[in-house]
Amino acid sequence: MHSIYSSHGRISKHFKLITSSSSFLHLLNFSTDLQPHFMVDYLITSLKLSKPEAVSVSTKVRHLKSPKNSQLVIDFLRNYNISESEIKSIVLSQPNILLRSVDKTLVPKFRVLSELGFSAQDLVVVIKRDPNILVRSLHTSIIPTINLLMKILGSKENIVKAIKKSHWPFYGKYFRTNVLLLERYGVSSKDIQRVILRNPRLVTQSPVRLEAKIVEAEREFGISPGSSMFSYGLSAFCSLNSLNLRKKFEVFKSFGWCDSDIFNIVNRQPLCLTHSEERLKKGLSFFMRELGYTSLWLSTRGCLLMYSLEKRVKPRYKVYIVLKEKGVLAKELHSVMCLSDADFVKNVVQRYKEEMPDHLYDSSTKSINL
């Protein structure tokens, strides 16, 4: 056996030669690594990336031998009317997109999403929100996820609606867990659909937080998972932290509301809590100070606080008070406010046209396309 040491304890010349050669090769490779990658110039020219951005991207695609495939990818994205700034953003966040085959990877993905019901413009929005979809596996990620969503949401239309309301990965790591959590609390499949379609982000949060909000909604305001208001209540409570909730309650209390009145309105119309404090104040001021209704009366008619004062409540109130004073209208105020625009015009305005001043009739019908 040859020793790397000589009989005098010195490193042999043979070993010195080997190590010297290895060091030289290492330095040669290191020197080569420091040479600018051809992709740097290409990215600066084609996408107007800054040099640091181009260098960063090029390190992720170093084994490319030419920019040919990258150009095919960029042209494909341009053909979908994705803007230059958006393509730049996609490449910066997902450099590996430049390695993908247009025919084998991108075209099949876009075809599947188009068949699902996404328009070309929808696809642009989805990709802008989550460029990761371009590098996810079609067969092990995208299609299985679509199948899962179909099982839960029931139709392609619902899947598209939910995804357009959120990021593509709204089904993320917590999605399955949160759906199972809702089922465990007795939420029906129909109500789970409502929860997701109303606010897909509700099922992306931590299961611990979601469960806490479910418990809070039932414990504090009697909105149980079996309630018709559950999807609305969960949406409201998940969108507010304890500080914001307390501020909303203080608004009601500033108008003389007691805890039982607040309980009643939240139980019946939890989404009223999602309005700004200023909007709540204006609504309460109109119904209580201008019209003289009590908190007890208003707490059982929370829908009145959901409508726009300027676009719906005040214009309809003008019609209501004229017809009430003439004794021809039997409907109560909240019933008039809850009618659809078409039903309001048909069953109130047109029905009692002769009892109304012309200007009031005209203003009540001009914005409705019958």
UniProtKB/TrEMBL annotation:
InterPro entries: MTERF, MTERF_sf. Keywords: Transcription, Transcription regulation, Transcription termination, Transit peptide. One of its GO terms (molecular function) is nucleic acid binding. One of its GO terms (biological process) is DNA-templated transcription termination. Pfam families: mTERF. The keyword Cell membrane does not apply. Belongs to the mTERF family. This is Uncharacterized protein. It comes from Deinandra increscens subsp. villosa. The lineage of its organism: Eukaryota, Viridiplantae, Streptophyta, Embryophyta, Tracheophyta.
